[in-house]
Each structure stands twice: as structure tokens, then as C-alpha cells.
From TrEMBL, chains A, B:
Family recorded in the similarity comment: Belongs to the SLC41A transporter family.
Highest taxon, organism lineage: Bacteria
Location of this chain's protein in the cell: Cell membrane; Membrane
TM regions (residue ranges): 295-315, 321-348, 369-391, 397-422, 434-457
Membrane-protein topology: Multi-pass membrane protein
The protein, known as: Magnesium transporter MgtE
Domain CBS: 212-271
Amino acid sequence: MDLKMIDTEETIISREYFLGIIADFKNDEFERHPYDLAQELVELRETNEDDYEYICKKMPSELLAQILCEMPNYVQEEISDVLSDKKIANITSKMDSDDASMLIYNISQNDEEAAETILSQLNEEDKKTIKHLNSYEEDEAGAYMQNELFKVSLDENIGDSLKRLKQLKEDDILDNIFHAHIVTVDNEYIGSIGLEELILFDYTLKYADLPEEKFTNYSLNDKEDIEDAVDMFTNYNLSALAVVDSNNKLLGRITHDDIHDIIQQIDTKQLYSLAGVSDDAEHEESIYLIGRNRAMWLGINLITAVLASLVIGLFDATIQSFVALAVLMPIVASMGGNAGTQTLTVTVRQMALGEIDYQDAKKIIYKEVMISIVNGLLFAAVIGVVAYLWFNIPLLGVVIAISMIINLFSAGFFGAVIPIILQKKGIDPAIGSTVILTTVTDVVGFFSFLGLATIILL
Amino acid sequence: MDLKMIDTEETIISREYFLGIIADFKNDEFERHPYDLAQELVELRETNEDDYEYICKKMPSELLAQILCEMPNYVQEEISDVLSDKKIANITSKMDSDDASMLIYNISQNDEEAAETILSQLNEEDKKTIKHLNSYEEDEAGAYMQNELFKVSLDENIGDSLKRLKQLKEDDILDNIFHAHIVTVDNEYIGSIGLEELILFDYTLKYADLPEEKFTNYSLNDKEDIEDAVDMFTNYNLSALAVVDSNNKLLGRITHDDIHDIIQQIDTKQLYSLAGVSDDAEHEESIYLIGRNRAMWLGINLITAVLASLVIGLFDATIQSFVALAVLMPIVASMGGNAGTQTLTVTVRQMALGEIDYQDAKKIIYKEVMISIVNGLLFAAVIGVVAYLWFNIPLLGVVIAISMIINLFSAGFFGAVIPIILQKKGIDPAIGSTVILTTVTDVVGFFSFLGLATIILL
């Protein structure tokens, strides 16, 4: 994620360099973080495809399993072109369930068949787990959980459970354990107790004997929206969240480190949507696919631009007699578009952060309209004087001033109203709202300016 | 952060409701999460200021300390208008150092004097800590650390240290402990060991006896940029990060839950900057202050819009003889603006996420230029035909088609180049880049379209 983490100046990323890493790994002298190696391996892939494939083939599955799950999706997608299905299956079996299912999912995006073969070579349990995790929708919490967790039953005593934990960790089955997740005999989720609390009790105690107020009980249904999980993590400062099914059976957990990435994904999606690009499409390798997706939004924008031109067309006679209008009219539209974008962006973001919601609609609209009126008056005065001095037509100054006020007002009003309505209708307020808004500000801008000109100047 | 967390339908947020909460708290029957209560208290503040102040005064310091640190900054800023300095000092003394320093900082924003009086009423140690934490710049890691952590020395044995931990937790001094941070006798940071590892060892062992490979050693200098901390958390999936001074003495720690908020703040800042609004200003209570800040950006936009108009002015004669040009010219500019914004947004975001950096400049520019040329050709064809059919002037179709290609090309090129150059120059590529870009696309759009028209049509 960040090149500060790697001394790109010093290390030369080469076949020899990675052979050295592999040697260290085999001699247990391995100290690098897989994330950094993933970054370097991606770099090698870009600089020398052959060396990249050579190293991937040479690398022990234990090591590649750690590195691969830190690699970007587009690299994971194509790993089946580099490695045999057998080796990938071997690597997959060494990953945590969430990383493994993500890898298989990514491979299936590029080569459905390879993904199937790899799955078929896994043991029944891994196969079942991965198929289950990949059966969730992208926005469901279940898609992000791992089923590796420290599960304890009410009648187990702390000491025994910790011995079990030790074994599970030595067998590389469990890692990043923050809690013991407590369940009944039939796997019903009761609550979790942090290790920091647990270790303060007498180890001969059974979990059933522990004071309930020491249990936390943050869980989420596997079908619920992952954004609800994000909210719980950020609001309640959780380290891990239990994921349960509709019968409150414990299925898995989501850990805090997954949430960082999800937050950034959500924010990226929002930022891109407002700019008329799709996050998924932008991650395509092919320039053609990226361009095609952007073209879709540009196409919509072209239609709205033509719409605005039709409005201008209504007043061609007026423009004919006052060319100054043609010179000035983009100013009104541009100012409206910018003021509207300011309002739209703030409203969309504050709704996303939960700082405001539908109940505050009146308050938000009032605030935005007030701001836009004040700024409308300000810039009406400025541009009115500028227009007058420029073309020496006093009434032209009046016309542009009034239309500036009208357009900034509508920019503030619609910049707030559009996302609020979309949100209320269950539509992502970031998607498409910019196009709708600029259509409004263009049409209102040109119509008010040229319309007023026709009335006042002719 | 999210109202799904509160049953706003069922609970009526009132004075009586909070008196009930306070009673529960006093009877140790208190089960709500402080975050939710903070949300509800903010709601009460909005609906009934008097009840809000009454409840704040009534609430025990222990409870209010938990709730207040979950409240937004603008509420913290004004708490000194509601509560006595003495009570606030009392509340502050019950907070973690990072929350306490944040509270004092927020109060000082609103009432410097009150902040000083409150500080003066704290014990020497708290005062020193808070002053130290608030001495950091907003972007320095030290500003986000807390000095409450589980510090152990090499010669201490595990069992004794855990006894100490138990006491520290019972005294409400420590919470959210994931590691033991190991230091030398003179507080030099050696490394950290996760509780999940620690508890698997024989408790009679000294920390000096533990195998070094069980230690993690992720630390950051207190003066380094907080964004580096964010990168370390997201890249290395950390739960906590040790903060050290220039002599590697352990000063404090940053925990994963702080990072969630910082990521969202960073993303909000970026999103707002691209839209020409300031995150800080948007959080002001006063509509006037918010509006003034937005006006600044609108003012800059007005200048660039006038610039574009000057370009149009060069061709008033051409427009006079072909009013169709006035009707069509906004289309070229608008398409350029949109295509450019797409490129700009993607480039800025991918640089921020570290997916691309200056070394990739050539690759990015090539990619964006290719996309913009392909889309340029596509929309040139479309709009060329439309313009021809509309005004029945074949050459007009040719003119707008060529200028569309030129403008989308410059949109792609500058949309990529502008943020890359800003980044290279150490300027935040999100700030101001949109204005620079739209200036380019407007000027190029109008100039190419009207210029070509003058050459070809006249």
C-alpha cells in the first residue's frame, strides 16, 4: 500500500533477490513482512514477467500462501496462468478461510474452470468452507468472515481451553486471537471475553462460572450488510465481531484489520461514484474495459449537455443581438455547477458517515440554501459589476446578477435535496447524483440568464 | 455514527430517559455503550438545550467521562459553557490520556481561558501528559497516542507482570490491552509480545528469557506523520503501534480503533478537497464560517470562468455569424470537464492508496491518454453527427468533432499530469487540482471549438 515501507532505492528487486528470500525462509532466518514481499513481487511482475513466474514456481507454498493473500486482486486473478492447479490448491489449504475464499473467487473471475479444479483438489472441509464463504453476496457480512476463531464451551475450564489454544497456534491453525468466543453445546453464540480479561481469572474456573458482565456480545447476522459491521467496529471500537446465522449459531468472526480495507473500499467507491467512475471497472487490467465504463457516464453527460444546449437554442435570436450573452453565459452555469458540487459532496459524505440522516433533511436544506443565497448575493454583486464594466451595458450586469442568485440558490437547494431523496429511496446517493445536479444547474443557469436577458434587454 | 444502532423509533430521548440511565449507572445496572448514549445526548442537545445542560450537570463524572469522549468535537468545544471547570477537570482526570488531551484541545478552541483553568486543576502528572500530547502538530503520530499501555521490563517475570495488569485493570487505568510492551531499565523500547503469545509461556519465565522471534517490533517516531501510522496498521494488520521518541524511548501507543477514524478523516478531507470544500470549515457550527470558506473556492472558480469567457470573447465575431456555435460550445467544455474529473479523481485516489506513485507516472499518463483518445473519437463521432443533423451544416459537425477529440485528449492528459506534478512537488494533489483542471478543459474546449470554427466555417 505504501512504498515508504520498502527501500526501493536500496534493494534491487530481481530473481536473485527473491532466491535469497526463499533461502532465508528455508533456513528459518526469514524476517520480512509478507506485505512488503507482496509489494516487491508485484514490482518484479511489472519489470520482468519471466522472473516473476520463475520465482512463483520456486517459492515454497507456505511462503507464497502468506505473500499471495497480500497481493492485489488482479494479480491473484492471474495466478492460475502461472502456477499449476495442484500448487495453488496446496497454497490455498495453507491460508485462512477468508483469504482462501478470496483467492478462489479472484481466480474464478479469470478462469472459472481452474477455480473448480483447484477446489476439487482441496479436502472436503476446506472445499465446503470456501464454497460457503463464496456463496455470500459482496455486501454481506458473511463474505468477509473467517471461520478460524478461538471457540470455547461453557463447561470447559479456562486452563484447558488455553492449552487447546496453544496447540491450535502451534499448528498454525489460529492467529490474531483477541477473544474466546463462548458457545453452548449446540454452538449457540453466548458472548465473547477478551484475552486481557480472561487471563486475570483463576484458570480452574469454567466459562460458565465467569461473571456475565465480563462478556461482550457484539455479533452480526451473516446476511447483514458489511457496512453495518463497519459501523459496529468504528462506533464500539471492536477488535473482532462474531458472525452468527439466523439461529444465532456462531459461524465465524470478522477482525479489525479487515475493516480498515473495507472502509477504504467504501470511501473509494463513494469518491469514484461522485466523479462518474466505477471502482470495479477501474481495477480492470484492460484499458478498453476501463474506458468503456467511463464512456457510459460521459454518454449520460453528453445527453444532459445537449439538453442544456437545447435551452440555449431557445434564445438564439437574443444571443444574435447580444453576443455578450454567449461570452458570459458559461460563467453562470459554471458557478452553479461548482456551488452545487460543494453542497452535494458534503451532504453525501455526511450521510455516509452517519453525521446526518433523513430526519435532519429540513435542517440540511435550510443550511445549504442559506449558504447558497449569501454566496449568491456576493458573487451576483461581483459578476454584475464585472459584466457592466466589461460590456458597458448596465442592464447586462443586472441580468447576470439576478441569474447568478437564482442559479446558486437552485445549486444549494438541489445539491442537498437530490442525495437526500436518493438515500430515502434506498439508492446510493453518490451514484449519478452529480449528473442530475449539473443538469439542473446548467439548465437553470442558461435558462435564467438568457431568459432574463430576453425580457430585460430586448 | 449510525442511527441503526439506536432505536430512535422506540426510545424517546428526554430528561426523564437520561435520569433513568443515570439511576441504572448508580445501581450498577448500566449496560448501554457510551457511544450510543453520546448519540442520544447530542440528539437531546438539539431538541432541548435546557434538558441537555440539566442532564450534563446531573450526570456522574465517571459516566460523563465515557460519554463525552464519544461526542463530536463541536459538542466537546462547548462543554465549558455548560459545566464548571472543576467538574470538567474531574471528568478529564477519568479519561484516557488521548481522549483527555483531545477534550482539552477542543475546549481551548472555544475558550482558551477555560482550558487553562481546567488544566490547572489537574494533578501534575495528568497536566504534564495532556500538555505534552497537545504540543504535537495535528499530523504528527504523537498527537494520536495514549500513554496508558502495559509496559514490562526484561527482568520481570510473566506471572508478576500479569498480576500487575490485573491490578491496573481493576483500577480502571488500563483497557484494550493487546500486547505487553517490553522496555529496558531506562525505558528503551525493545519489542512487543501479543497476549495471545504471552499466555502460552510458563509464567515463571522472565521476558528476557522469551524467544525473540515472538516479539513484534512495530514502532513509529512521535514526530512522524500519522499517515505513516495508518499505512503500518493497514499494511501489517496491527492491533497497536508503539510510539517512541528520537532516542527510542517508549512514549505511548496508538490502537487500531483510532485508525478507523483517522482513515475516514483522511478520506473525507480528500473528497472535500476535490470538491473545493474544507473539512475543518464544514464542521464549524456557524453557517457564515462554512459559507465563507466555500466562497473562497467559488471565487477562484469565478476567476477561471471569466478567463474562459475571455477566450470566448476573442471569437464574438464568429459567434455573431454562427449562433449555432454559442449553442454547441458548452457541450465541448462540459465533456472535457467530466472526462478530466474522472481521470483526476482516479489518479488522486490511487496515489493516496499507494496503488500508484511517481515512478508509474509514464504508465498512468499513457493509460489515461489512451482512454481519452478512444472516448474522444467515440463522442466526436456522436456529437459530430448530432451537430450536423441539428443545424444541417456539415462543416459544423467536423469542427465540433475535432475539438471534442482535442479537449478529451487534454482532459485525460492534464487530469493525470496535474495531480502527479502536485504530488511530486509535495503539495496535496486533491487540493485545487479540480479548479486547475476545469480551467484547462474550459479554455482548451472553447478555444479549440471556436478557433476551428473561425478557420473552417468563415
